# Entry
Amino acid sequence: MAKSKSAYFCQSCGYESAKWLGKCPACNQWNSFVEELIQKPAPNVPDWKPTGKLNARVARPAAIHEIVYSEENRLITPDKELNRVLGGGVVPGSLVLIGGEPGIGKSTLMLQVALNLPGLKVLYVSGEESEHQIKMRAERIVPSGGRPETYILTETSTQNIFKQIEQMEPEVVVIDSIQTLHSSFIESTPGSVSQVRECTAELLRFAKETSTPVFLIGHITKDGTIAGPKILEHMVDTVLQFEGDRHHVYRILRSVKNRFGSASELGIYEMQGTGLREVSNPSEILLSQREEQLSGITISAMLEGLRPMLIETQALVSPSAYGTPQRSATGFDTRRMNMLLAVLEKRCGFRLSAQDVFLNIAGGLRVEDPAVDLGIVAAIISSHEDIAISQHACFAAEVGLSGEIRAVNRVEQRIAEAQKLGFEAIYISKYNQKGLDLSRYSIEIKSVAKIEEVFENLFG
Ligand code: TYD
Ligand code: MG
# Structure
């Protein structure tokens, strides 16, 4: 056995150095170097041997027009949200990384996929939970106990995993999680940069050589990045982020990087007692059911990724009981709310500086689309004046610093979604109206240029 060797690795980007450095030359992070034991395998010792049926091919250049490619090769899972986020199903031989905070539901999502793949042999490798725990979870998701073709392996050594894979030849592999794996070719602890990199490289080789799709679950560090070197994200084909507020039931699966599809797709799930349920029409659940019209509530047509949805914004404006008024926003940037309040104060003459203002986006979502500006401004004034806004109207426009109503992207999609959900009127910017074929819509399109026009229209 060769003498063990160590090197210093930047924990933030994976940069390798022979000696300790105070500052990483690659990512400029301070104090990020940690010594890790590494041991290079002796040359010519393959860590994973292809089985007979999958002889390693010798790559040759091919003319691009001769390469045959068909979309039908994709594996379509019964989970429509996942298919969409992946760009239309799982590509054979792809390596998909799913990142998310602890407890958000990554294991649940992947186990659910593993249990529901029709007619395929699936291997679910867990380094985190025991077989019993996984069985218990499977019972919750599929009470009948799952399909016989789903296999559970509790193992963390990649060499042992590959040994089992060679025997059972699974058609899909799930690894929960990449940070618990270790390769015996490297001596550092599981979860360290060099281990994560090595294990991912081995799995990548396996995926490409056998055309088996591999799903990796990855943990998230405190600052919201996937733990492990940044190069992990470069190595895999697709990076999906699973996010949501743990106190709410909705979860969003977002594509951050995708070599096989759009990176702005998104899937929505609802966490139930029996696993994750796909939410195919998000607008319907994001609009809270209410009987009467209340002040301070408006609906905005926003886009998440490429998907239009209508969300409810709620504002509460009340006289401040203490010296400094409180300003608080849930699901929306507080600085942006303060800017909108300043516009209302300065351009429209509303006296809001002595008022507490609370803002809430329903459903626990975080909204970054500027098209919700107008809806938020209208909700604030509706609460301030205590006049309810019709439930049948919605908004899709950005508000500028001088109180002008600005155009937003993909307005046709937003209008179409509002119309589909039965809204009777939508407020958009006058500048969005150009080139818009109004006769195509049955919904009334109110185009406005200034914030005052909106208020005149709404409050008379
Ligand atoms: P888990 O998938 O273990 O999260 P992660 O792998 O991302 O750490 O799941 C987390 C939470 O989901 C857990 O707190 C329990 C809850 N849960 C349900 O609400 N319903 C279910 O059917 C299951 C399986 C879990
Ligand atoms: Mg888990």
DSSP finds twelve helices and 21 strands in the chain. The pocket of thymidine-5'-diphosphate (ligand 1) is lined by residues 100, 102-108, 137, 140-141, 271, 273-275 (CB under 6 Å).
